[in-house]
Amino acid sequence: MKAKLKDKIWTKVLYVISGFVILLLFALIIYILFKGVGFFKPSFLFGNAKYGESGGGIGPQLFNSFYMLVVALIISVPLGVGAGIYLAEYTRKGIILNIIRLCIETMSSLPSIVVGLFGLLVFVSMTNWGFTLLSGALAISVLNLPALTRVSENAIREASKPVKEASLGLGATRWQTISKVVLPSAIPEILTGIILASGRIFGEAAALLYTAGMSAPRLNFAADNLASSTSPFSLFRPAETLAVYIWKLNSEGMVPDAAQIANKASAVLVIMVLLFNLLARILGKKIYESYTGKK
């Protein structure tokens, strides 16, 4: 009876703690959305702020955030998934594996501001690129690689347990087994990790302050030259993202309604991060059901 009573008490305590966390999250979201009323207006989402003038928008910063997201994923996803395949299928227990895991754990614990300073020294100064979108994407990739590697390794290892030996027993090579059997089974978990990493990329600011810069040149979407500084698709131009812009508004206040714009931009940022998390859950579940035949 004492054991059952203790179990009920601690179960209720855990429910209370979980409820408090959920309530705190909802209160934070409601407060941010309340402070940023009007963030969904097209004039704000696609407008452009002018120095010293009120009523600006976040169009260039929003585009830079999505473009930074795409470029960073193109760099980090192949490396992260490839490293996960190597750790799950090709490595053996020993000193080399221990060194790799130590490096991954060390990289995952690095503060983003430290990664930003590393990016400033390597991707900005040593390459002579200056503050560019590519420098920011590379710095963000350094931040995301440990998490993507761990997610991919765990997903591949768990997916390979029931099917790996059967595939090899039928005469398939190791690479055929990985590419045709194991990876498709692990895609839902890997995709979930990628989408969650996308939310971090979209909301990152500290690492981008020192790599992508804090200026947003006026973008000319009609430009044909990708190397032009005014081309929106150029990788070698400064790219002020939405999170960096929020920090800049609160620290410099270069427009009369800086606080209002920052509140609205924060609401947009929170909504986008929530959508990334919801999309990870929904899409991962759908893909899992399509592979397992469940409905």
How do the strands and helices of this protein lay out in sequence?
Blueprint: H1 2-35, H2 42-45, H3 59-90, H4 95-108, H5 112-126, H6 133-169, H7 174-203, H8 206-209, H9 242-252, H10 258-292
Helix pairs in contact: 1-10, 3-6, 3-7, 4-6, 5-6, 6-7, 7-10, 9-10
Walk me through what this model shows:
- The protein has 295 residues and is an all-alpha fold.
- The protein has one domain (58-292): MetI-like (MetI-like fold).
- 73% of the residues lie in helices and 0% in strands.
- The chain has ten helices and no strands.
- The relative contact order is 0.14.
- The mean pLDDT is 83.
- This is Phosphate transport system permease protein PstA.
- It is found in: Cell membrane.
- InterPro entries: MetI-like, MetI-like_sf, Phosphate_PstA.
- One of its GO terms (cellular component) is plasma membrane.
- Keywords: Cell membrane, Membrane, Transmembrane, Transmembrane helix, Transport.
In short:
Pfam families: BPD_transp_1. This protein is an all-alpha fold and 295 residues long. It has helices at 2-35, 42-45, 59-90, 95-108, 112-126, 133-169, 174-203, 206-209, 242-252, 258-292.
The amount of beta strand, in percent, is under 5%
The dominant shape is globular
Order of helix and strand elements from N to C terminus? HHHHHHHHHH
| CATH H-level superfamily | MetI-like
Q: Per CATH, what is the topology?
A: MetI-like fold
What is the C-level CATH assignment? Mainly Alpha
In total, the number of domains comes to 1
Number of helices: 10
Largest sheet: none
**CATH architecture label name:** Orthogonal Bundle
**Low-confidence runs of at least 5 consecutive residues:** none
The radius of gyration over CA amounts to: 23 Å
The total count of strands amounts to 0
Terminal Cα separation, in Å?
41 Å
What share of residues is helical? over 70%
User: What's the overall average pLDDT, rounded?
Assistant: 83
Given helix and strand content, the structural type is mainly alpha
